[in-house]
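hey all, quick one before standup. I had two proteins in the batch that finished overnight and I want to keep them in one place so we stop losing track of which output belongs to which input. First protein below, input sequence then structure tokens straight from the run.
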Amino acid sequence: MGRSQQTHQKREKEKQRIRQREDKAEKMQERKANAQKGKSLDDMLAYVDENGNLSSSPPDPKKKKLFNAEDMQIGVPKHEETEAENPERTGIVTFFNGSKGFGFVKDGQTGESAFVHINQLSGPLKENDKVTYEVEMGHRGLNAINVKKIV
């Protein structure tokens, strides 16, 4: 008599496959039993109201807003250079190092800080001096130019 070609491991794998098939069939039967039959298309639809929220009821046609396609801007609007009415600002020197030749001026209205170099000064400066200046954009941020001490 010959030995059986089916080993213990092969039999266990076959039993496991059969068990998985039976579990899958049971789950499918449960889903079919629990499924709500007779759901209409209207029950499955979702609507977007005038505020952009999802709702189960259709939106009110009275609240509908009409827009002109020509009035809509898609993308970022082009930057328009606006000329400041008074390019001269006033501020206070918050820090100044005379030996290194630089400091910072804080704008009196906006509170922005601007870098100032000794080449842009009309006279000697020290901390807490009130100054008038103009602003230009430098490599690292705002630069104060034409800085004059207010007496």
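OK second protein, same deal, sequence then tokens:
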Amino acid sequence: MSSLKKFLKEKGYQKIKLNYTATQHFELKAKINDIEGSFILDTGASSSCVGFEAVSHFNLLAEDSDIKAAGAGATDMLTQIAQKNNIEIKGWKKKKVDLVLFDLTHVNNALVKHKAKKVHGIIGADILKKGKAVIDYKSKNLFLK
């Protein structure tokens, strides 16, 4: 796989090491507004999200939203939105990123139940698309351009 890594590096991609949680999810560190947090990488999540309990941690400005969140056994969850945030994942940066804010209690309860650490949020398909993501499952690396 070093040829894939070399090819992507030549194309300007940043390599981000991923860690498996005890629940077999990929986890990574990211900074929102220059503040680091822990996130699950979720290719099935259409939007990147932050839990309500981490709004002050990342200095987010929460606004009401009509969007209802659903996933992982929960539906019609109330949300808010935080607009125009900066995100950085190991050297890859994007400005003016909108984040969905919702109750991540059910996600964190499931992680803790399986002896994994709680997360601040979820990196979803919106960020993966913006970064032209390539995920190498064998080497546990995410590449963003």
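Flagging for whoever picks this up: Residues 2-10 form the longest helix (9 residues). The CA atoms of residues 46 and 125 lie 5 Å apart.
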